[in-house]
Design goal:
By secondary structure, this protein is α/β, with parallel strands linked by helices. The chain has 10 helices and 14 strands. The strands form 3 sheets. A 6-stranded mixed sheet has the order 6-7-8-3-9-10, with helices on both faces. Strands 2-1-4-5 form a 4-stranded antiparallel sheet, with helices on one face. It is elongated. Pfam families: ABC_tran, DrrA1-3_C.
């Protein structure tokens, strides 16, 4: 498990992090989202030992995260760290060797990853000759080549086409199924909502929301209860909880506590209930609310 505990970081008069805390469990994919400058990259750099926190701790499996532990992580920084004149296959294999793989294992892992990321035909090309999207794929292969015990990826889907996004997502899901905690940041909130088990939202260096996607979408006061009652008795909504807006047979309730059973009983007594269900906000809507 990766644990981020009360991280603080300042640059002169600017507060970058102000008590950031969250955890990523084994076999969990955690989406770390926030606006530009919110503190995502600073948090990840501290996690990977690139920066030092002013205070707070980073723990791995209950103990302080050490250099030897980080060697077993797969890390993809926000800025690409590739050798532009080096051939793709040689580069991925080289990083595999740096991370402890034997030559044969590094070659096989490189071949498998290049095939998965649709780079086999470009294996002999120099990185500098690739498009930005394909360079992103190579950077991902470098992070994944040694089958890391945990993944920390800063904007891994940036610049990828839909086919490459699906290929990477499949690889990340495989690492999650193998028990690895996977932490990645992204501005593509629909993708985060689709892939992640849990989400943390950071704004101005503070965690403003954290939990599973289901918990965040079903949070107190969130969501609209949509009720459609055909041939309803006039005034059937009188005295019911929450705020409502009626349009013919359809009534939308907001601000309802609980599961709305009182409303369901009243609707059933009033007429034929054609629809009764919650319409939960998307992650994008929750993000806008949280950082407002």
């Amino acid at each position: 498990m990766i644990e981020i505990d009360d991280l603080h970081k300042r640059y002169g008069d600017k507060t970058a992090l102000a008590g950031v805390s969250f955890s990523v469990k084994p076999g969990e994919m955690f989406g770390f989202v926030g606006a530009n400058g919110a503190g995502k990259t600073t948090t990840m750099r501290i996690l990977m030992g690139v920066l030092t926190a002013d205070s707070g701790q980073v723990r791995w499996n209950g103990g302080p995260l050490a250099f030897a532990d980080r060697r077993r992580f797969g890390y993809m920084p926000e800025e690409r760290g590739l050798y532009q004149k080096m051939k793709i296959a040689e580069q991925v294999e080289y990083f595999g060797r740096l991370n402890g793989l034997a030559p044969a294992a590094a070659r096989k892992a490189t071949s498998d990853l290049l095939e998965r990321l649709s780079l086999t035909e470009r294996a002999g090309d120099e990185v500098g000759a690739l498009s930005l999207g394909n360079q992103q794929r190579v950077q991902l292969a470098v992070a994944l080549v040694h089958e890391p015990e945990a993944l920390v990826l800063d904007e891994p889907f940036s610049g990828l086409d839909p086919i490459a996004v699906d290929a990477l997502a499949e690889v990340l899901v495989e690492r999650r199924r193998a028990g690895a905690p996977v932490l990645f940041s992204s501005h593509q909130l629909d993708l985060v909502e689709r892939l992640c088990d849990a989400v943390g939202i950071i704004s101005a260096g503070r965690m403003v929301a954290s939990g599973t996607v289901g918990e965040l979408r079903a949070g107190e006061g969130r969501g609209v209860l949509r009720v459609v009652v055909r041939e309803a008795a006039p005034g059937w909504t009188a005295g019911l909880p929450g705020d409502l807006a009626a349009d013919g047979d359809e009534v939308l309730f907001t601000g309802v506590d609980g599961d709305g059973q009182e409303i369901l009983r009243a609707a059933t007594a009033a007429g034929r209930v054609e629809h009764f269900g919650w319409e939960r906000p998307s992650l994008t809507e929750i993000f806008r609310e949280a950082v407002a």
